[in-house]
Amino acid sequence: MEHTVSLLKRYNYVARRLHETATAHLAATPEWEVKCALGLHLWLDAEHCGALRARVAEMREPPLHLDDVPDERLRAALEELLRAQDSAELVTGIYGVLRPALLAAVRGHLAAMNPLFDHPTYRLLRQVERDQEEMLEWGDAALAALTDQPEAAARAEAFAAHLERYLSEAGGISGDQPADLASGLPAARWDGSEYEMDAEPRRDARFTDPFNCSARIDDYYADESRPATSACSRSCTSGCARWTCPSGWRRSCSAHAGVPGTITAS
What we know:
By secondary structure, the chain is mostly helical. It has helices at about 1-25, 30-60, 70-80, 85-110, 120-145, 150-170, 215-220, 230-245, 245-255.
């Protein structure tokens, strides 16, 4: 039972960090198809987090420590993923390394467990497995499209190898795989500081986007020199923009990344 709880906490942590990575990159990702997929998949990650947290709460008395980092080595791998530098690296990291590793861990867990003895966990992990399979089906096609040029393919391959070394050092998603001790870790992108998100919304060349970017609503909202009579209008417009525009919604979510209890499906 203790081992199961430990694994569920690691899955929860990985799903939460995948959610945070998607929200952090959503605005700056120019490809519309990738932007839409990130939005859907971060919602699914939140669903999985909520279910995993609920299951741990059923199996253990508080405090549950669900917002703790379960393994600093696993954190290091996910911090490297967060620092993907373009769409090819981002999609490679999420759909070429981390999600396949998460799916493999869940499948191994399902194969080793007694589905009758712990059916609630079995049922939960089966849903996670199905969702991850669907996400990876999209990810494989997206990765093929994003790496059709040699330069992009080389960057993606190098970043995948980079992440795989860090994930191996953590013993994989489950933490029980033997690490490759023959070679050291590549130079880290993460220097221990907080990630600075690029909040500038971007679209690819197919979109001129005359509506989202024609007015700098956030700048207007923060400008105290503007007439007080426009404050209500600015506040309402800013609020609507944040919750109807995926890029604005991303900024709101990212601002609360890491705050206990804020990453939920609702």
